[in-house]
Amino acid sequence: MNNAFVYRAHYRTVWLSDIHLGNTDCKAEYLLDFLNHSTIDTLYLVGDIIDMWAMSKQFRWPESHNQVLHKLMSLSKEGSRVIFLPGNHDAPLQKYDGITFGEIEIAREMIHTTADGKKLLVLHGDQFDQAVCFGPLQSWIGDKAYDLLLFINRWYNRARAMLKFPYWSLAGYLKSHIKGANKAITRYKYACINRAINMGVDGVVCGHIHHPEVADISGKKYYNDGDWIENCSALTELPCGEIKLIYWTQTSHANNLFNLRMSKARGQKKAA
Ligand SMILES: [Mn+2]
């Protein structure tokens, strides 16, 4: 890539979560493309960055995942402030709360102040699993069903790519159309908002449920930055303090990347 001609958007802040490096369904190429088109003052890694659960089941670490990890580490050396808030899939790192590794600060929760002076609580969101009643059995079933759904999603999008359609999240569509899923998402959102109310802050930034969203609830802001498994989304703050969700698969060069990735995959199949 010729960096001299790459247009880079400047963000005061970027929140990324649920990247799931080490998981087959992580869209590492898209994330790398987003990071290569961005200049970031402060980057929050809002949990589930490395999928230690998936890695314990089956070790998978392609070159693209390595490139993402390398890029995230190099950002802190290039002058970005990087804060990592471990989630449930990278829970072993939670014990380093308050420690700085190299240039990366580790914390379980953080308060962010926007350019226009708003205070936002930043956290992964697994803190609310009890309140939302995702019991251990329910999360195990959910995990299995979700794995199957992602498997279907993968093949479905291969077919779409062959027909030159852009990437589309089947899992995301089903989640927003199933009654039980909607209920759980609502409960999760209210658990987040209640926490913001109790802490006296203006809102909350979280991830965890792979459901990007911006909402106003009871006078507080709810921001969910989504994920890089299905949605390829990032929450961004512009220098003026405006906060926006970005879906990287919907940008034109991301679509070119999708077709390139799929034609490469087809090429590899043919060669094999
Ligand atoms: Mn999570």
From TrEMBL:
According to the entry, every stretch annotated as the Calcineurin-like phosphoesterase domain falls at 12-212
Q: Which residues cross the membrane?
A: none
- Which biological process annotations from GO are given for this protein? lipid A biosynthetic process
Q: Which GO terms describe its cellular component?
A: membrane
Magnesium found in the keyword field: no
The molecule here is called Metallophosphoesterase
Keywords, ordered alphabetically: Cell inner membrane, Cell membrane, Manganese, Membrane, Metal-binding
Q: Which domain of life is it from?
A: Bacteria
In alphabetical order, the GO MF annotations are: metal ion binding; UDP-2,3-diacylglucosamine hydrolase activity
Read off the SUPFAM superfamilies from this record. Metallo-dependent phosphatases
